[in-house]
Amino acid sequence: MKVLYILHATIMGGATISFLKMIEGLRLKGVEAYVVIPSHDEEFEERARSVSANVLIAPQKMSILAKRKDGFSNRLEYVIKFPYRCTKILLQRRKNGKSLCALIESVRPDIIHTNVGVIHEGYWCAKKYGIPHVWHLREYQDIDFNWVIIPSKSIFKKCLKKSNVIAITKDILDYFNLSDSRRFRVIYNPILSNSTTALDFPKKKYFLCASRVSREKGHEDVFRCFSKFHKLFPDYRLIILGFGKGEYIDYLKQLSIELGCENSIEFKGFTDDVGRYMRKAVALVVASYKEGFGRMTAEALFYGCMVIGRNTGGTKEILDETGGLQFSTNDELFSQMVNIVNMPEQEYRQSIIKAQSRAKELYSVEAHIDAVDLFYKEIISANSLSK
After folding, report:
1. Each residue of 181-214: pLDDT tens digit?
2. How far apart (Å, rounded) are the C-alpha atoms in residues 305 and 239?
């Protein structure tokens, strides 16, 4: 089976890491992967080829407008500027489609799989050639990133209903008014292999945040809660992992000084070895305001790390399935931090063991590969019957 995958970016974030794990496992199921990226990227191309993927180049245009970046400061500006920018994106998308069509004619794939919801070229080209299309929804688009969907959200929803859809959470599937069925289904991201787990006790006295350091990830809320917690438990630390813009990191550092806890907060930056920190943390704190899935939440469970997560989006869905402590307000987050350090040792251990077992059932690489492979086979079979 030949599958043409379309990626909008090659940054090694959660979606790209999940994608590479997926095609590596599908190769063992007999899937021949052709990966289309928008421009040359030596690091990504090397990683893709290491899992036996063929890398192709074709431009793509995200079918969204970012409200802040694109200057929609008020309703009037939106009304004036939107038609022009929308038309510009649609024309570019049409031009990009011609390049993608040339690759499709060369490869002749059985399925075209677009790895993210904001790229539309794959859908329209698949429609032209009568090839089954899979749209992999990894984000809400508007409520998480404040994007405007081009040409409109309602048109995008109609296109989804004519495609095959993988959503990374039930909440995203519901958000686009799709119900789990033959053509639309939830397949959670592949996190780690079932063999890659850890249960390290005792834990060290620190809480962990591991994500991009940006406002939507809720770091400011964590700092304010930790400052209150720190007054009761001064021997605990807060470790921040991840990259971010310098000005926002500087803002957080200044905030920690104002809150009087700067000596107990450590910025470690980006690391490839997040697991080392997770294994010993008292808990991972996930404060994102609207996480599509929340790779770090699931990954923490594989490493035997308790999670305190915001009661929203993918974070809520993972913790509802596996267990963990949830919060909606800063007062609740502070209370959960206190609860976790006061929890009896045996209860704490059993909670982690139970959550880890459930995470392996739902989010392992093996479970993901089996689910996608089955979906592909069902799509091919349905397409053959319809001809």
Report:
1. 899 999 998 888 888 899 999 999 999 999 999 9
2. 14
Q: Are 373 and 29 in contact (CB under 8 A)?
A: yes
DSSP-assigned states of every residue in 212-270: -BSGGGTHHHHHHHHHHHHHH-TT-EEEEES-B-HHHHHHHHHHHHHHT-GGGEEEEE-
Instruction: Please state, in angstroms and rounded to a whole number, the distance separating the CA atoms of residues 337 and 340.
Output: 5
- Read off the tokens for 327: 């919060």
- The listed range with the strongest mean pLDDT (13-27, 65-79, 86-100) is 86-100
pTM: 0.79
Alpha-carbon distance of 62 to 8, in angstroms, equals 7
**Do 370 and 25 contact (CB within 8 A), yes or no?**
no
d(CA 197, CA 365): 12
Higher pLDDT, 79 or 203: 203
pLDDT of residue 272: 86
